Amino acid sequence: MAHYALVGPSETRRPRLGRPVGVSRTSAAVGGVVLLLPDGDPVSARRASPRAHAAMLPLGRELARAGRSEGLAVHVVHYRARGWNGTDAALMRDTTWAIAEAVRLYGDVPVCLVGHGMGARAALRAAGHPAVGSVLALAPWLPEDDVAAEPEPVRQLVGRKVLLVHGTNDARTDPELSFRFAERAKKANRDTCRFEVHSDGHALRQYASEVRALAADFVLGALFARPVTRPVTDAMAAPPPIGLRMPLAAGFGSSRRG
User: Fold this and answer.
1) Do 139 and 165 touch, CB atoms closer than 8 A?
2) Residues 258, 243: Cα–Cα separation, whole Å
3) For a FRET experiment, which of 41, 69, 85, 89 has its CA 20 to 30 Å from that of 234?
4) What is the DSSP secondary-structure string of 183-232?
């Protein structure tokens, strides 16, 4: 795979956490942190996409509401630029910075990485940081376009709780590649599972409420040891391929929301 260096104005930009999503964090104790990692482009030095940032906010608000009693702080990471940029892996490097910044701000609290598309790849890659205990990868971009390159790493996931979610009609990131990645990850880390959202696309809009409910169930369970729903428990316990092709049922989480 070619190396793509960041050029131009992106060299002088800095990644940012910005304000917490959903609630003001002035004096309340923080018990856990979620870092939301937006989607990006394969190659670009342009500013990070405001649209991709905004797309993470509904999930961020839901997580902030659901985790308020435990002092959950949720941030959407602002990348320096929107491109992954080959072996530069710029989004992963910005994610690593964001984890360190969260530790600086909040101290020794558990961190969950939640990414979409290329942000999901960044989350999976950066999971080896000692502060990270869990990863949620939504429609992850896990290309296999260079057969001579090393496969996407999985050893950094050992000891973490990992959930992948992918729409079966995703035309931008291949769901079969995330399944193959999940197979390898499961061999290294038993606390790995994957849900399939039947007929949904890359943005996971068709079953957005179910996806957000699944995300909240997993994230709050991983960060604060809350009990998780039976489908998540079953998916984690089931051997491949069952636990890696778990269907997300319509109406998931509706009883809890009600």
Assistant:
1) yes
2) 27
3) 69
4) HHHHHH-SSEEEEEETT--TT--TTHHHHHHHHHHHHHHHHH-PPPPHHH
Give the chain's radius of gyration (CA, Å): 17
Tell me, what DSSP letter sits at residue 192? Answer: E
Contacts of 203 (CB under 8 A, 6+ apart): 55, 139
Average pLDDT over residues 186-196: 98
**Which of 11-25, 156-170, 182-196 has the weakest average pLDDT?**
11-25
**Torsion-angle region of 256 (φ positive above 0: left; ψ -120 to 50: alpha; else: beta):** alpha
Q: What is the mean pLDDT of residues 205-231?
A: 97
pLDDT in tens, 80-106: 999 999 988 999 999 999 999 999 999
CA distances from 120 to 24, 92, 165, 189 (A): 26, 9, 10, 18
pTM of the model: 0.93
Cβ burial 12-25 (10 Å sphere, 16+ → b, else e): ebebbbeebbbbeb
CA dist., res. 114 & res. 138, Å (int):
8
| Site of tokens 């069952």 | 242
At 33-89, the pLDDT tens digits run 999 999 999 999 998 999 999 999 999 999 999 999 999 999 999 999 999 999 889
- The residue type found at 174 is D
Using alpha carbons, select from 227, 232, 237 the residue that is nearest to residue 249: 232
